[in-house]
Predict the 3D structure of the following.
Amino acid sequence: MLKFYNTLTRKKEIFKPRKNKKINLFVCGPTVYDFSHLGHARTYICFDMIAKYLKQKGYRVFYLQNITDIDDKIINRAKEKKISWKDLSRKFEREYLKDIKALNINSVTKYARATDHIKEIISQVKKLLEKGFAYQIKDGIYYDISKFKDYGKLSRRTVLQAEDAVSRIDTAKEKKNKGDFCLWKLAPHRTSEASSSAGFEPSWPSPFGFGRPGWHIEDTAITEKYFCPQYDIHGGARDLIFPHHEAEIAQMEAVSGKKPMVRYWLHTGFLTVKRRKMAKSLGNFITIRDFLKDNSARILRLFALKAHYRSPIDYSEKEIKEVKEQLEKIDEFIDKLKSQRAKRKITTQHSKLIRQTKEKFEQAMDEDFNTPKAIAIIFKLINQGNSLINRDLLSQADAKNVLKFLGKIDEVFNFIFWGKKAVPKTPLFIKKIVKEREKARQRKNWKLADELRKKIKQMGYRIEDTKKGPKIKKIK
Ligand SMILES: [Zn+2]
């Protein structure tokens, strides 16, 4: 039974979708003004794993992600670079999608840009004004958090506690409550369609005047359009719980009069460097692009999934080295399985091994997507499999079954086969046995040398002893 931890209730709950086997999942996407870093990669790899596991459980998943292509950060960066906001945001949207593709994050059904949903955003702001949840002051339209009874139910903050964090972002002095946030920012210098916005600071016409949307409203406008308006799962990094996700609930539940907007809230933990959050503002970040210059993408996938999605995960060279070693262990095991040639019958030991591993794997994943446990189970299988191979107890057919099983797991994880380099001409473990055989021959231990030759043959390789030493050839 699939269970996961719901930030809204602070409990692990049995998952029940709203409609049978169909799941609507929304995850906050990037603000496209710069390259994404490893912290972003961690979040999106985790939700990719979650979406893929839900699919494997037989659900049809509509995974929606927004792209924030208008925002103060974009406007400021565009001004700095003296290019238009649109050129900047389109460029970094393309770069984001390139990174996502490189990491094999391919479970997203639809990406929705904020600026493609201005009509829906205006409609929500209008409704909030009509229903008395919003008010207009000089620089824009604001949400009155004191009007929404349930404000703070996700982050467990009161209206008063909300003030500090929000007012740093929305600084207008005339606000009714310090914690009120902007829904529509008015463009003071623009009064007609014809007047220019200089390319840096865009604005759109609306019944309230030219302006641009606040950050929180784009998500609810987009989810209302595609999920109309209640849905199953909302995800994001944990720093979005407040004020962003709290604001989303306040907006959507006030607009629709229906609650809850979302049944399950899932949040990923931070990626840290020396225990501090990796962030643009702290300057301690590594971009995905830079990481992939020296490392394969599967390193990042295993690194991200080794920790539980809710736990913090600390990035270090040492940690990455350990991940590389683990991948080598996986690769060697797969190469061995692929080389198995023994034609014995399927052993009972092996089918029991797969059955047990499968059960345990599913139990771990069903328990709030416990990937560290699931990965430990895979490594146990590798150790036990290696031991069967070494004792010559695994047939070719057994090996095929294990490979098939690992293939199924890799549909969710994408670090076992995905991104793996082709098998080298002579795998390392064959070379090792050949060396052992050479030593046995030098010691004139002909019996052992012969046994090792047979073992090599069973793994699909033949030895030819030449004057220059042994030559290894693959049996066709
Ligand atoms: Zn968002």
The CA atoms of residues 2 and 366 lie 4 Å apart.
